[in-house]
Amino acid sequence: MRHYEMLTILSAEIEEPKEEVEKIQEVVRSLGGEVTQTDVWGKKRLAYPIQKKAEGVYVLFTFDLEPAQTFELKRVLGLRPNIYRQMIILLDD
């Protein structure tokens, strides 16, 4: 397993972002990964509009996952309507 960091931008219109965060953590676990840290940065103004929205909730995840599963993680999160963007970065050991 490798160490990854993922920054996601969630819709600012959702009532409780913690529920969406828990769903993302469950997706990582279902792919055989382990979430080590979650940091909710809160609602911030976007640099440019996404889906005609000017704000989003930023959440940073740190997790361990097999490299082949990152493609599936991107695919599954891309299907969720409350997730505007996600970026996964491989951390150095």
Q: Identify the strand order in the major beta sheet.
A: 2-3-1-4
Mean pLDDT across every amino acid position: 94
CATH fold group = Alpha-Beta Plaits
The top level CATH class name:
Alpha Beta
Q: Helical region count?
A: 2
Proper CATH architecture: 2-Layer Sandwich
For the largest beta-sheet, the strand count, sense and barrel status come to:
4 strands, antiparallel
What's the arrangement of secondary structure elements?
Blueprint: E1 2-11, H1 17-30, E2 34-50, E3 53-65, H2 69-78, E4 83-90
Antiparallel strand pairs: 1-3, 1-4, 2-3
Describe the protein's architecture and organization:
The chain is globular. The longest helix is centred in the first third of the chain and has 14 residues, at 17-30. The protein has 93 residues and is of the alpha+beta class. It has a single domain, classed as Ribosomal protein S6/Translation elongation factor EF1B (Alpha-Beta Plaits). The N and C termini lie close together (11 Å). It has helices spanning 17-30, 69-78, and strands at 2-11, 34-50, 53-65, 83-90. The chain has a 4-stranded antiparallel beta sheet with strand order 2-3-1-4, with helices on one face.
